[in-house]
Amino acid sequence: MQGWADAMSSDDRNYARTRLRLGALLALALLCVLAHVASASAAPLASSNGQVPTHLRSQHSALTGPDTTPPTTTVEGLPTGWSRTPVTLSLVATDDEGGSGMSGGSAKTEYSGDGGTSWVAGQTVTYRTWKRGGGSGVHTLLYRSTDAAGNVEETQGCEVLIDARPPLTRDDASLAAQLHDTTVSFTANDSLSSVAITWHSLDGGVWQQGPSVVVPASENWGVHWVAYYSVDNAGNAEYLKWCRVTITADPETIVFVTESGTRYHRETCQYLWHSKIPKTLYIAIIEGYLPCSVCEPPQLFQ
Ligand SMILES: [Zn+2]
Predict the structure, then answer these.
(1) What are residue 231's DSSP bridge partners?
(2) Is residue 154, in this structure, part of any structural domain at all?
């Protein structure tokens, strides 16, 4: 048996080897071209930061198909917590990278202040305040954006908390004259941001905070004034208010008068060396005696 190679001449065998080499070279060259084309189309779209260069976006869109991703809206200028001043919000829409963008076409940002019943196109929303607490409340803002290709973002919402109304504080001071230490309590209300602090000052003294103040009775006869006001969590301060606490001595307290004087005294007063007649404070007052300015005896207040 002879192989087919043995049947061929020497020239025939050389020719066949050459054809095999040429075929392998051509196949290799084709592979190189295909690999180059693949890398050339992929490399610029997948740059190191994953972003598509601007000049390639149209090619990218053509390669990846139509934009089906809605944009995203963020709110800027939203205060944390309560505000007592006007609030202006900016709605900033961003479309997905390589998307159809936020200009032209169907692109818009819109918001609703009535729970989605009506929508207004715009990117700036201002909540105003005015006198007597106007504009106060918990405002719910709904917003959404649509990109140029018409992809509508799912509706988002935020709450704008505005309290331009000061708190209201009441006191429980009695009009009746008091014999003993007397506590005045304050009740402060604020329906929105709630009360943060109540300040009070007794007879023009240092301002202190707290829900009550004690007016001492000991030798503190007379009319005392308590000033107070509250501040809410939005920073609204109430106008100053006042109440009165009258401290009186017990009308049955024994005081002393002299035979000829017009004043009544404490038992230890120096003016009592000549005569010393005891009376109740009440009787001394209705008989027209005045308190001694030296020994400063108890006084009756109503
Ligand atoms: Zn006296």
Answers:
(1) 197, 237
(2) yes
- Is residue 200 domain-shared with residue 158, that is, in the same domain? no
- For the record, the structure tokens of 302 come out as 């109503």
- CATH number assigned to the domain comprising residue 242: 2.60.40.10
Cα of 291 vs centre of ligand 1, distance in Å, is 7
Q: pLDDT tens, 196-221?
A: 999 999 999 999 999 999 999 999 99
- How far apart are the CA of 284 and the centre of ligand 1, in A? 13
For residue 281, the enclosing domain spans: 254-291
296 in any annotated domain = no
As residues whose CB is below 5 A from the ion ligand 1, the structure lists: 265, 269, 271, 292, 294-295
> How is 90-143 classified by DSSP, letter by letter?
EEEEEPPTTS--SSSTT-EEEEESSTTSS-EE-SEEEE--BGGGBT-EEEEEEE
What's the whole-model pTM score?
0.71
Please write the tens of the pLDDT for every residue from 53-65.
444 444 445 556 7
